[in-house]
Amino acid sequence: MVEQFIGTWTLTASENFDEYMKAIGVSFATRQIGNMAKPNLVISVDDTGLVSLMSETTFKTTEIKFKLNEEFDETTADCRKTKTIITFENGKLVQQQTWDGKKTTLEREIQDGKLTAKCIMEDVVAVRTYEKKA
Taking every annotated instance into account, which residue ranges of this chain make up the domain Cytosolic fatty-acid binding proteins (predicted)? Predict the structure, then answer.
């Protein structure tokens, strides 16, 4: 389940992220910051099954807390207000955000000890790779 995702992960590679941010409507100035940021992803789970996903950068720290399969309101790092649901499918944490008639999907999975986050908006796909901190 989610246990394999628990820990602190550091961004080591990012492909096509600027195109993805453009596709979801992020402004140029915010994209500049987004492209420079090298977030740490901190994932934990408490005794009640509440999952915390924190993204820490020198610019901004955002955190969402959620239970799998339960929709919640999220304010994203780029200030979109979304309806979000996160499910666990085929070993992946699948996050779906819906806002203003749009929808994006983030698929996080562990491959070869690394966490990959695939960000999908229509036909634009970005892949961000994180390595676990020792």
Answer: 7-24
